[in-house]
Amino acid sequence: MVWALADWMTPRLQQVEQALIQWIDPQAPAGLGQAMRYAVLDGGKRLRSLLVLAAAQAVGGEGTASGSAALRAACAIELIHAYSLVHDDMPCMDNDVLRRGKPTVHVQFGEAQALLAGDALQALAFELITPPDGSVSAPVQAALAGLLARAAGYQGMAGGQAIDLASVGLALTEAQLRQMHRLKTGALLLCSVQMGAVCAGQPEARVMDALSRYGEALGLAFQVVDDILDVTADSATLGKTAGKDEAADKPTYVALMGLAPAQHYAQQLHAQALAALAESGLPVTQTQALRALADMVIHRNN
Amino acid sequence: MVWALADWMTPRLQQVEQALIQWIDPQAPAGLGQAMRYAVLDGGKRLRSLLVLAAAQAVGGEGTASGSAALRAACAIELIHAYSLVHDDMPCMDNDVLRRGKPTVHVQFGEAQALLAGDALQALAFELITPPDGSVSAPVQAALAGLLARAAGYQGMAGGQAIDLASVGLALTEAQLRQMHRLKTGALLLCSVQMGAVCAGQPEARVMDALSRYGEALGLAFQVVDDILDVTADSATLGKTAGKDEAADKPTYVALMGLAPAQHYAQQLHAQALAALAESGLPVTQTQALRALADMVIHRNN
Questions:
Q1: Tell me: the pLDDT tens digits for A231-288?
Q2: Is B70 exposed, middle or buried (CB count within 10 Å of its CB: 0-12, 13-18, 19+)?
Q3: First to last CA, chain A
Q4: Phi, psi of A89 (to 5 degrees)
Q5: Which residues from chain B sit within 8 angstroms of residue A162, using beta carbons?
Q6: Sign of the C-alpha dihedral, residues A44, A45, A51, A56?
Q7: Cα–Cα distance between B166 and B256 in angstroms, integer?
Q8: Residues A116, B32: C-beta atoms closer than 8 Å
Q9: Helix axes B67-89, B47-58, angle to 10 degrees
Q10: Which of A247, B99, B146, B211 has the fewest CB atoms within 10 Å, measured from its CB?
C-alpha cells in the first residue's frame, strides 16, 4: 500500500484539534476562554503541530509513552502561533480585521480582551508542556520549555516581528531579509521539528543537527513561498488579501530577487531540506511524513 | 547581632538587578532590547523576587547549588510582572502614561513595540528558568516552568485581569473581589514563594502547603493594603495617582468594607501568613526573611 500524506495527516489533525478543545478551558474567567478558543480553534493549516508529530515519529517517539509529550508540544506550538496572530492583527500592529474569513479577535472581543487572550495563550503553551501529572518526564518538559521559550522570544519570533516592524519601507539586503524571516516565522517552524525530536528524550547530536537543518530550510522555504503566493495567487485561494505585501511596501523575496529566481530559490531550499533528512541517518520509513510536509510547503497554493 | 531585613535585602536586590541587566540583552533586534530593559530595570520594589529568594532560603536552598535556580526564578517572576504592567498600561487597557515617574513603555517606544516587548518578556521569563547549561536540574526547571505558566495564565494573572476588565463599575461581592485579586496579583505572589521553595528540589508536602498558605495570605494582604493606600496616601508617597481606584469606580476592599474593617482584615491576613510559617516546621532562623517581608507588605506606605 502506498504511503499517502493525507492518510497520515487526517487522524493527527483530528487528534490535535480535540486536544486543543480539551485544553483550552471555555470556563476561563470573564470571557477569556471564549476569546482564546476563537483565536485557536477551527482554523489554520496546523503545519507546526504536524511538524512536531512528524519529527517525533522520525526519531521513533510517536505512538509510545512520549506520544503524550508530542501531542502536548504540537498543541503548545499552535498556541504560540495563534497568540502571535492575535497580537499581530491588533490596530497598533497590522490592524487586520479579517483572518481566515472571520473577524479578528480584537474585532470580535475588543482590543483589551485580545491582548489578554494572546498573553494567556502564550502562558498556556508552557502549561501544556509542563503537566504536573508525570505524563511527560522532567527532562523532556525542561527541554520542550527551553526550546519553546527561545523560539518565541527576542531571539526568535518576537525579535523577528520587531525587525519586521522596523523594516517597512526600507530596502533590506537579502541577508537582512533572511535574518528577519529566520526569526519571525523560521524560529517556530524549526522549533516544531526540534520539539518533536526531543519528545522521546535527547536524540543523538547527528540526528538533532540534521533535523535542525531540515527545519531551517523548511522555515525559509515556507516564507519564500509565502512571498511568491502573495503575487501569484488570488485572494480567494489565499484566504487573505493577495498583493498585500507589495501594497504595504514590505520587503519580500519576490521584490528583492524577482519572481522566477524566488521560485528557483524555493526549490533549492526544498532540496536542502530533503538532503538534511537523508543525512540524519534515520530510516526512510520513519521520515516519510517529514519529507511529505516539505513537499506540501513547496507545493501549497494557500 | 540583630537580624535586619535591610541587611538581608540590600545585597539580594543588587544581585537581582545585576542579573536582570545581564539577562536582558540590549542587542535584541530592532530596539526590542531597549524597550525590554526600560520596562524592567531601575524600578519596582522587587517584592516578588525577594519572596523567591526568601522562600528558597527558608527551605535551605539559597547559597547552595540551587542558588542559581533561585536567582533565575527571582528574575523570571519580575519579567512576568513587568510584562503585565507594560500591557496593562497600554491604551486599550488602563491607558496609563506614567509609571514610577517615567513615561510608560508605549509612550516611550510606541504601542507596537510595547506589545512586542511585553510578549518577549514573557518568553524570556521561561527562558531564564530553562538554561541549557545544566546549571539548573531538569526536575527543577520543569517544576519552575509549570508553576510560572499556571500563575501567569488564565488560571492566574491573565484570568484576573480579564475579571478586572469585566468588573469596572459592577458591584462585586467580597467573594468575587477576593477571587479577582487572588488571580490578578495573588497568583504571582504565591508563585514566587512556591518557585523559591522548589529551587532546592521538591520540598515535603507539609512544608509546601504551609508556604503556599503563607503566599496566599500575603498576596491577599498586599492587595488589601494597596486598596487602603489608594485612599490614605498622597500621590507623591505612592508614586502613582492616589484615589485612582475610586475615581475609576473600581471595586476595592475599602469601597466594599470601609476603611477600618479593611485595615483590620489586613492585620488578620498578616497574622495568617505568620501562623502558616510557624506551621511549616521550618527552623525560625530560616524563615526570618519571609516573616520580615510579610511585615513589610503590611507596613509599607507605597
A1: 998 766 666 666 777 667 778 899 899 999 999 999 999 999 999 999 999 999 999 9
A2: buried
A3: 29
A4: -80, -15
A5: 28-32, 113, 116, 120
A6: positive
A7: 17
A8: no
A9: 160
A10: A247
CA–CA separation, A183 and A84 (whole Å): 13
Question: Is the CB of residue B212 less than 8 Å from the CB of residue B195?
Answer: no
How many CB pairs (< 8 A) connect A and B? 188
Residue B10, SS3? Answer: helix
CA angle A172, A176, A180 (to 5 degrees): 110
Express each pLDDT in B234-255 by its tens digit: 766 666 666 777 667 778 899 8
Closest CA to B302 of B239, B253, B223, B244: B239
Q: What are phi and psi of B59, to 5 degrees?
A: -90, 5
Nearest to B138 among A142, A156, A161 (CB): A142
Contacts of A138 in chain B (CB under 8 A): 138-139, 141-143
Chain B residues with CB under 8 Å of A194 CB are: none
Q: In chain A, what are the domains?
A: 5-299 (1.10.600.10)
Q: Which chain A residue is nearest to residue B92, measuring alpha carbons?
A: A112
